Amino acid sequence: MQTLLADVVAISPLTDHVHKVILKPQQPVSFEAGQYMQLVLGEKDKRAFSIASRPSQTDQIELHIGAAGADSYAMQALDHLRQAHTEQQQVNVEVGLGVSQLRVEGERPIILLAGGTGFSYAKSMADHLAEIGCERPVLFYWGVREQAALYAHDEMQAWANSNPHFQYIPVVENAPQSWTGKTGYVHKAVMEDIVSLEPYDIYMAGRFDMIGVVRDDFINHGAVREKMYADAFAFIK
Ligand SMILES: Cc1cc2nc3c(=O)[nH]c(=O)nc-3n(C[C@H](O)[C@H](O)[C@H](O)COP(=O)(O)OP(=O)(O)OC[C@H]3O[C@@H](n4cnc5c(N)ncnc54)[C@H](O)[C@@H]3O)c2cc1C
To answer: Where, if anywhere, are coiled coils annotated (predicted)?
Structure first.
């Protein structure tokens, strides 16, 4: 783990509830794709956020923070970042945390499963896999409640077009009639598409209740527990 001071360079809206934050660390940052960082608000108050940027971007850290509700965990963190930005103060961060980072070795196909802002976790791995010229099949499923939450849809389509082994599958839970893609829960779409999950390395991020349901459903659908990665596992039963 690396402890750093960082400038808050920019905070911009991605949707009504999700904000992109760019931090510029005082020294080059070192982490693996799929790891997270903690924003230090106090000695015992540290807020976890996945790093959306890829490891080769050593001069910046990108975060996607979904913040709804005035006093929520994420909104408090965002307020802290906004204040530091306005006052041109640095923030304390701890980078390179988690055990669910991308395992680049091996031949197994990969599923990246993101619920909502869990996108951030999967995005870092997707970009890293493109950068290293990965030839394993990679299926990137992104589930959102409303279509407007697909804030990086065009970027993901371009990512999928960059490599014949990559596929991007957006899944809108409450889709309008004009939506021609997949609907419902994102992990159900995976199970409709794939007969058995046994061959796959599966990386996932989303709400804790989602991750609990997905873990159980995927194991029933053939997934190997040791090949399923989610930092949320450490927080749920
Ligand atoms: C280590 C760590 C890192 C984190 N990093 C971030 C971060 O970078 N940014 C951030 O905002 N939060 C982060 N969190 C908090 C947490 O991951 C988010 O609360 C979660 O990703 C937010 O999802 P959402 O509200 O956008 O999803 P929602 O909009 O609630 O859901 C999106 C989709 O997820 C699926 N889904 C949701 N609930 C269920 C369910 N019960 N059953 C099945 N499927 C379901 C559906 O497909 C749904 O359409 C982190 C937490 C931890 C522990």
So the answer is: none
